[in-house]
Amino acid sequence: MVSLQVVEAPRDEAGLPLELERIIFEIVASSCPKLIPVLMLLVEPLLYRAIYCSAPTAPPVTTKFPKLDSKKLLSIIETKSSKILHSVRYLFIEDLIEEDANRVIGVCSNVYQLFEYYTPSHIDTFASLHYLRRLTIGLGQFLNRWRRRDDWGVAHILTQLTHIEFMNTEGNGDLLNHVSIDDTMREQKTLLCIIALVPKWAATADTHPLADDDRFVCVQQHGSYRTDWLRGADTGEDYWALADGFIIARKTGQAEPSRWCITDIDKSWRS
Question: Which residues of 134-160 are buried (b: 16+ CB within 10 A; e: fewer)?
């Protein structure tokens, strides 16, 4: 008699290659069809490791992850076990109303990397995200809801982040240079990387309030930020990796120490 026990793996333990996992599941299912329902319980969480819910008007993208609109995503939340949604590690939500955003973020409590843009979630919703380390958020959204430095919720979330990225696709330089960003970011000692993402056509100033902070990088975007996020969730090659590499290059002398602005296509600073 074959028995199979469902065990939750440690959070930081590296898994097997997906192709090898597939072969193992196929062998077990073929040898004992009665185990297929149990195998489904194991496989389904893998499907929701990364959730991509873009704006209705967003251009189509190619990805192996589920592409959901807000209606489908909320339906999954209604019908699926909370344990399945706890497997979500990468969450992309864009252009959701506040009520829906709060609901999605609240359920996906084990998220490690969150992309939230044009989505006015409430700061209290983030209280359950104990594993959140990388946050991408609209710059205007941060200024409107996150700059209350005496707010315990804001302080708690920022102190657990290692990476933060400010989206500024309108290319508004006045927002990018807002003093609240300077003051708030300098206080966060756990942050390893601070990115300002601006369009390729946006003019960049000669200086920036955070230009002397060796964690800060301004990235002029030529590619799609949606495609970049999906690639990062799959392979780890994204704006985070680009900025991390540039920060190291500055520290080791491979890039000019005073340089703080790069593009996502020019990697001439790499040795």
Answer: bbbbbbbbbeebbeeeeeeebeebbee
Residue linked to tokens 């344990």: 83
Examine the fold and report which residue of 5, 26, 47 is the final residue of a domain before the chain moves on: 47
Residues 166, 189, 128, CA angle at the centre, nearest 5°?
65
Torsional class of 64: left (φ above 0), alpha (ψ -120 to 50), beta (otherwise)? alpha
Considering the domain boundaries, does residue 61 fall inside one? yes
Range of the domain at 27: 17-47
Using a 10 angstrom Cβ sphere, with 0-12 exposed, 13-18 middle and 19 or more buried, the burial of residue 232 is: buried
- pLDDT single digits (tens) 107-133: 888 999 999 987 766 777 787 888 999
Residue with structure tokens 């506040």?
A: 98
Question: Which element (helix H / strand E) includes 154?
Answer: helix 152-158
Q: Report DSSP state, residue 38.
A: H
Q: HSE, CB side, 13 Å, CA atoms: give it for residue 205.
A: 14
With vertex at residue 126, the alpha carbon angle to CA 141 and CA 180, rounded to the nearest 5 degrees, is 35
Q: Are residues 159 and 238 in the same domain?
A: yes
Residue 20 identity (one-letter amino acid): L
Three-state DSSP class for 235?
A: helix
Q: Are residues 32 and 92 in the same domain?
A: no
242, pLDDT greater than 90: yes
The reply to whether 134 and 34 lie within a common domain is no
Q: Is residue 11 assigned to a domain?
A: no
pLDDT for the residue numbered 30: 76
Tokens representing 66 are 């589920």
